[in-house]
Amino acid sequence: MTPPLLEARQLVKSFPGVRALKGVNLTLARGEVLAVIGENGAGKSTLMKILAGVQTPDSGQLFIDGKPCVIGSVEDAMEHGIALIHQELNLARTLDVGANIFLGREPSRWGWMDQARIARESALILARVGLNVPPSTPLSALTIGQQQLIEIAKALSIRARVLIMDEPTSSLSVHETEALVRLIKELRSSGVSIVYISHRLGEVEAVADRVEVLRDGENAGTIPRPQIQRDTMVKLMVGRDLSQFYPHQPHPPGAVAMETREIRTALYPKQSVSFNVRAGEIVGLAGLVGAGRTELLEAIFGVVPALSGSVELGSLTLRPQSPVESISAGLALVPEDRKHHGLALEMGVRENLSLANLHRDQRFGFRDGHRENALCETMIAALRIKTPGPSQPVQFLSGGNQQKVVIGKWLATDPRVLLLDEPTRGIDIGAKQEIYRLMEELAARGVAIVFASSEMEEILGMSDRVLVMHEGRITGELPRQLLSEESIMGLATGGGPAPLSSQ
Amino acid sequence: MKKLLGILGLLVAVCVITALASDSFLSAYNLENLVRRSALFGILSIGVAFVIITGGIDLSIGSVVCLVGCGLPWLLTVQHWPLPLALLAATATSLVIGLGHGLLITKLRIQPFIVTLCGLLLYRGIARGFTQDQTVGFGSGFKALRGLATGKVAFLPGFDLPVPVLVLAGTAILAALFLNRTIYGRYLLALGSNPQAAAYSGIKTQKMTVLAYVISSGLAGLGGMLFVLDINSAQPVDFGNFYELYAIAAAVLGGCSLRGGEGSILGVLIGATLMQVLRNTITLVTTHNNVEFAIIGAVILLGVVADELTRRFAARRRAAKALQKSS
Questions:
Q1: Element (H, E) at B163
Q2: A16 in reach of chain B (CB within 8 A)
Q3: Looking at beta carbons, which residues of chain B come within 8 Å of A387?
Q4: Which of A24, A261, A399, B234 has a Cα at 20 to 30 A from A283?
Q5: How far apart are CA A146 and CA A139, in angstroms?
Q6: Looking at residues A260-288, what average pLDDT do you find?
Q7: 3 state SS of B234
């Protein structure tokens, strides 16, 4: 029996406060398309980064062609023919296509760049990935989908045998996604092995020869080709029945709590968005990466001023220009990127929890230490934040507990409308469920919730109603009974029902 | 407090070594001078600490010292302005300079380094312009006003406390209260730690940034006045030269991170004192004043490297501990 092309045994990797991988195994055969799936925080990205030499494991072994090997750096990985295509593209925007393909490995003669060779070889590789542009095209002239192909071309130019793709379709149109799936199949038949990470289970059904499911840093199971179906995958991903995982109860809709009128953002200045949310209602905001969901929420909250439009909260009408007014009007935003927008990492749990409330709790400009401590204790208890103490710097907490601190900060402002942007990104399943339960409790208490999520299961599981965005506008609204991955993807890609799922 | 022990230890060590190496270190004359200079530099250091806490930098302090320090005697003795008006003009100038820095940094988003570097060139140039490079001073007049800087109050037998120490104490207490007890102090720390998170939390980050630069220039102005009152003669060419570097070094030695978000007033005071003790040591112990900068540079580097190493060590231990707990 020939050994697998790539094998990982008992990989363990820890970060401060979290064990991302707790002994994960993985095998990859020649010419195989292996899909690796799992909820946010399951350890997929860490595993991929280890395979590609971006990170080194704490323990565990890697084998290539059955021989043990050490991948200590990206260069090592490239030498072994392993290339990782990040979710966020790593291309030099100011250079042309050819220069990008050979970035860092420019062919040269006595230190002089061999432009002719770059042009010649780039053209060949571009043809292989089916991209019909001259190598001298500036990168900025390409669409995101085409830039993705440049990343693949770059990988092929180092004669990659293993291509790792981290959510390659998260910002692609239906057409571009179909083209990518075709390319993957061609690469497979030419002997390239592909590790494919995606949240879109329909896509996984379409391309994968085998599915490896990760859950909380461990292998949850392997699904062979004949059994690759949505239900099997989801069950392994969450490890229990869906109805238990998402505690969703239908909510009797209350009065309209927030109405946005004609909000325009700098990302899509020609589109305007109007929608409403009722007290006690959970509205999911779905769409591809780049659809403008984050920008919309930031504009409503006023942290990035909207170009135009207004937000009605009860009897108040705001032209959101700064979060200060929005907060006092009863609006709160839990931002997508907690490390950059949500937390002051070096500061303590207490200091972070109170940050949005100091203004309200002040006495003539002085901090009210008693109220600050009381607020901190209440939130630590209510959200079950695991911390050695209130002064622990939040950078030493796990992702889930950090997220709870951000949510706690906003709950402390006592909002009537809570905007959540990717509320469960990068946190473990236990913390996720707690956040779902919390959303449910808040809705039951009459808080209106709008949450943007890229995780299909979460949108399907938690929403009373879903708004789908595509290129800056709302392309459709789906009540709970009409929710399905197909109906959402169809609207999210700006067309009818998505054609991929039935291939 | 724990973080301050290291720098406090260093201060004590340098003092002990100098006292052993030189008889004159502990003389009343030297100590009074040392304390006076430490107090004056302490005021500048507290100012720049506020900017550093927000993650910014102020390179213009020495030139503000020069502008205000030359401007005050010039207005009084050359232009013959009445005293209250001259004091008001000097104070207002320094505050407006800070306001200008803050607005350029927040509204036009020019980097603090560039804005204050231009300030460094500009204000000294202006001072040299209006004084026509002539030395300015108070002559034998303004005794009462000069008492603010040169005066002493009886403190211990054989040792009188220079008045600037009282000015510094007042400034330091106000600064510490502001930083640690008001919501604005917390806002400054949050702004330095993560400006984005601060903005998302509804903090008016631009106003807070402007405030920090106003405090920095304002205290530089106050320092400038006290410096010139103390020595009674200012040469625009080099008055206040390099003072921003002494102030920044003192703040960093005292625990302010140039990344922002950290710092304590007490630490800054210790840092400022250490800087002046070092300079004093060099004058007393070595015969080569010309190596002063080399020695100061080396000591600061040593202090910062030691701080970074302990921090890393602590972080690693903490991470290991957290891991043990979670598994």
A1: helix B163-181
A2: yes
A3: none
A4: A399
A5: 9
A6: 92
A7: strand
